[in-house]
C-alpha cells in the first residue's frame, strides 16, 4: 500500500459502510434471498480498464460486514496499476454475501480507483520537482474520508480534512472581517495550539499584508504565473519558513508551470471532481 494512504479506524469506517449497505439492501435483497440458501461460492474481480487500484481493503470490509466467513484476497496492492483484463481480487464464501455486497463494494473501489488514477497523472507531471499536490474539501458528502484516501494512494497529499483541522482565511472571511489584518488578529487569539493560519491572497498587496501579520501559509489564488513568481520571491525574501500554496484552475496542462514558480504546494479539486470511475466487474466462478 502507498504509505500516504491510511484508512480510518474500524470505529469510523464501519458505520459509514453500514449506511451504504442499508441504502442498497433496503428491506432485503429480494433476488438473492429467493435464489440462494446456504451455498458457498467463489468470484473474481476483473479490471475492465487500465488504472490505479484503490479501496480493496474497504471492499473486503463490506463483505465481512455481511458475513465474516467471506475471504477477500487482494491480488494487486493498493496503488498498483493492473492492465485491462487482469484479476484484481479473488473472493470466496457464502454466495448470498457475495451477491448482496457486490454492487456497494464495486462502486466504492471503482470510484476510489478513478480518483487515484487521475491523481497519479497530476503527480507525475511534477514528480521531479519539490512541489507537492494536495487535495481540497470539494468532496462528495459522506465520502470525504475515502476520497481523500484515494488521493493519497494516487501519490498526492491530503489538505485539511475539515474546518477544524486548520484556519484558512478566504476572500469571504477577509471581506466579513474587514481585512487581512483584522481577520488574523481576531483569529490568532481564539485558536488552540498548534493550528496554523493560512491566508488566501489574490495580489501582491495582500501577500505583503499576510506576511506582515504572521500568516503561517499563504495561498496564491488564481494568480497568473508571472505574478505568482513575484509573490514567491517576496515571501521567500521576507520569511523562508512561510509555506506557499498555489490554487485555482489547475489542470494537467498548467500544473508544471505553476510548480516551477517555486511554490511548496499546489491544491486542486480536479482529481476528485473531474475523475471518472475505473471499470471493474465481478464474475462468479
Automatic annotation (TrEMBL):
Any one GO CC term of the record: cytoplasm
Pathway it acts in?
Answer: Cofactor biosynthesis; NAD(+) biosynthesis; nicotinate D-ribonucleotide from quinolinate: step 1/1
Quote the record's binding site residues for substrate: 103, 136-138, 160, 170, 200, 221, 247-249, 268-270
Per its UniProt record, what InterPro entries does this chain match? Aldolase_TIM, NadC, NadC/ModD, Nicotinate_pribotase-like_C, Quinolinate_PRibosylTase_N_sf, Quinolinate_PRibosylTrfase_C, Quinolinate_PRibosylTrfase_N
Q: Tell me which EC number(s) this protein carries.
A: 2.4.2.19
- UniProt keyword Glycosyltransferase present: yes
In this protein, which residues make up the domain named Quinolinate phosphoribosyl transferase C-terminal? 115-283
Q: Extract the Pfam families matched here.
A: QRPTase_C, QRPTase_N
Q: Where is the Quinolinate phosphoribosyl transferase N-terminal domain?
A: 29-113
Alphabetical keyword list: Glycosyltransferase, Pyridine nucleotide biosynthesis, Transferase
Which CDD domains does the record associate with it? QPRTase
The record's catalysed reaction(s) read:
nicotinate beta-D-ribonucleotide + CO2 + diphosphate = quinolinate + 5-phospho-alpha-D-ribose 1-diphosphate + 2 H(+)
What biological process terms from GO does the record include? Answer: NAD+ biosynthetic process; quinolinate catabolic process
Carries keyword NAD?
no
The organism sits in which domain of life? Bacteria
A molecular function (GO) term: nicotinate-nucleotide diphosphorylase (carboxylating) activity
Assembly with partners or alone: Hexamer formed by 3 homodimers.
Function according to Swiss-Prot or TrEMBL: Involved in the catabolism of quinolinic acid (QA).
- Into which family does the record put it? Belongs to the NadC/ModD family.
The name on file for this protein is: Probable nicotinate-nucleotide pyrophosphorylase [carboxylating]
Q: Organism source for this protein?
A: Scytonema hofmannii PCC 7110
